[in-house]
């Protein structure tokens, strides 16, 4: 059953009373000369952060620092880092040059085995290898590497040949990802997030998608697939539809809290439908008593919290863990408008992890602790 996030839900957002994240200063780069954004921890199958070598392994999108920070999307490579407390250690690019079957690597999720001897990565391959002009095709792949930890030394073996998990069918999910190519118009088949359902032990991935049979340009959705006994992923109908409302429901992921399911995603004001109600850049979500739904917008609107009004682009790509920690990256810091000039954008771009936040949840209500 597909549930719907609608204009009526978003119209009920009260900009005067909505929950907002606190302001924070522009962080120092973790790696000089490198921008970092969308990131996720290596997780146990229950979704908790895995403790590895006394800390947490993270996979991040990375690119060389360029004048225009928006150019990073066309150069994105996955990077491995290790955090102990507030200290980050760079372990380098995750893959060798030419490993992925695309021109760049986008977001996903990673799960460590129960005995911590290997990691499975689910990620987005964007474009095609060797293309001269960047395309916006998106494919979902999985790969594995053996993990070895000796003291503080963390070693990964060569990654297995990436295997495509599933493809859009042109019936539920759009095949054409281009959407004109401009920021905010690109269609979605990306951001696979692994989830093990405690109710029956079944494994799923959720992903950002675009509806195939839609009369609207704004046809964002949350897709899902289930892992079958033969090891193949079975494509399922969309879990959430934002048809006619919003173009991109990015990095969707599910946690279980208090016996309920909570599905979260990130979206931006600029990708809401023209002429309709718009929400702020923020963390959104829905809740259900079962994975099958029906799903209800948290807080009646879907909005968990927004960036602060004085800095509406301060952070993005929020990721909620089962302990209700919320991770994100520092985007445009200390600015209330979208920079047009690349030099201005570079001055304000954070390009590093943002401070962690924490949610509180009670039934359909979600708020910042």
Characteristics:
single chain; 369 residues; mainly beta; Tachylectin-2, Chain A; nine-stranded mixed beta sheet; five-stranded mixed beta sheet; globular
Could you please describe the fold and organization of this structure?
There is one protein chain. With 369 residues, the protein is mainly beta. It has one domain: Glycosyl hydrolase domain, family 43 (Tachylectin-2, Chain A). The protein is 3% helix and 45% strand. The chain is built from two helices and 24 strands. Strands 2, 3, 4, 5, 6, 7, 8, 9 and 10 form a nine-stranded mixed beta sheet that branches. The protein has a five-stranded mixed beta sheet with strand order 1-14-13-12-11, with no helix packed on it. Strands 15, 16, 17, 18 and 19 form a five-stranded antiparallel beta sheet that branches. The model has no long low-confidence stretch (mean pLDDT 96).
Task: Give a brief description.
With 369 residues, the protein is mainly beta. The chain has helices at residues 7-11, 342-348; strands at 3-4, 34-43, 56-64, 77-84, 87-93, 104-112, 118-126, 138-150, 153-156, 163-166, 189-196, 203-210, 220-227, 233-241, 250-257, 260-267, 282-288, 296-297, 303-306, 315-320, 325-332, 349-353, 357-362, 365-368.
Number of strands: 24
Order of helices and strands: EHEEEEEEEEEEEEEEEEEEEEHEEE
Give me the oligomer status: single chain
Number of helices: 2
Q: Kindly provide the radius of gyration, computed on alpha-carbon positions and rounded to a whole number of angstroms.
A: 19 Å
| Tally of discrete structural domains | 1
Classified in CATH, the superfamily is: Glycosyl hydrolase domain, family 43
- Beta percentage is 35-45%
Query: How can the largest sheet be summarized?
Result: 9 strands, mixed
Fraction of helical residues: under 10%
Task: State the distance separating the first and last CA atoms.
Answer: 32 Å
Q: Which CATH architecture would you pick?
A: 5 Propeller
Binding site for substrate: 37, 107
Organism: Sphingobium xenophagum
Family: Belongs to the glycosyl hydrolase 68 family.
Protein name: Levansucrase
């Amino acid at each position: 059953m597909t549930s719907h996030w609608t204009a009526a839900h978003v119209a009920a957002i009260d900009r005067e009373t909505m929950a907002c994240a606190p302001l924070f200063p522009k962080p120092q780069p973790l790696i000089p000369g490198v921008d970092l954004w969308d990131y996720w921890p290596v997780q146990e199958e229950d979704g908790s952060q895995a403790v590895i070598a006394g800390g947490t392994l993270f996979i991040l999108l990375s690119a060389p620092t360029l004048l225009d920070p928006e150019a990073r999307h066309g150069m994105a490579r996955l990077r491995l880092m290790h955090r102990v407390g507030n200290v980050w250690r760079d372990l380098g690019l995750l893959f060798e040059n030419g490993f992925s079957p695309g021109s760049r690597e986008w977001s996903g999720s990673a799960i460590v085995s129960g005995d911590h001897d290997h990691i499975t990565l689910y990620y987005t391959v964007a474009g095609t290898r060797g293309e001269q002009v960047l395309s916006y095709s998106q494919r979902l792949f999985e790969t594995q590497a053996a993990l070895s930890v000796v003291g503080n030394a963390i070693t990964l073996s060569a990654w297995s040949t990436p295997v495509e998990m599933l493809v859009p069918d042109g019936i539920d999910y759009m095949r054409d990802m281009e959407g004109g190519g401009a920021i905010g118009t690109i269609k979605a088949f990306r951001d696979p997030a692994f989830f093990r359902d405690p109710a029956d032990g079944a494994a799923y991935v959720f992903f950002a998608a675009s509806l195939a049979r839609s009369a609207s340009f704004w046809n964002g959705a949350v897709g899902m697939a289930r892992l079958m006994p033969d090891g193949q992923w079975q494509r399922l109908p969309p879990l959430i539809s934002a048809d006619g409302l919003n173009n991109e429901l990015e990095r969707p992921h599910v946690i279980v809290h208090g016996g309920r399911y909570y599905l979260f995603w990130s979206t931006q004001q600029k990708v809401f439908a023209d002429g309709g109600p718009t929400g702020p850049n923020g963390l959104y979500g829905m809740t259900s008593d079962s994975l099958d739904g029906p799903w209800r917008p948290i807080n009646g609107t879907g909005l968990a919290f927004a960036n602060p009004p004085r800095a509406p682009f301060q952070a993005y790509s929020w990721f909620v863990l089962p302990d209700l920690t919320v991770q994100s990256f520092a985007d445009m810091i200390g600015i209330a408008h979208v920079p047009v000039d690349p030099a201005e954008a570079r001055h304000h771009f954070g390009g590093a992890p943002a401070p962690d936040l924490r949610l509180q949840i009670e039934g359909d209500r979600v708020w910042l602790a």
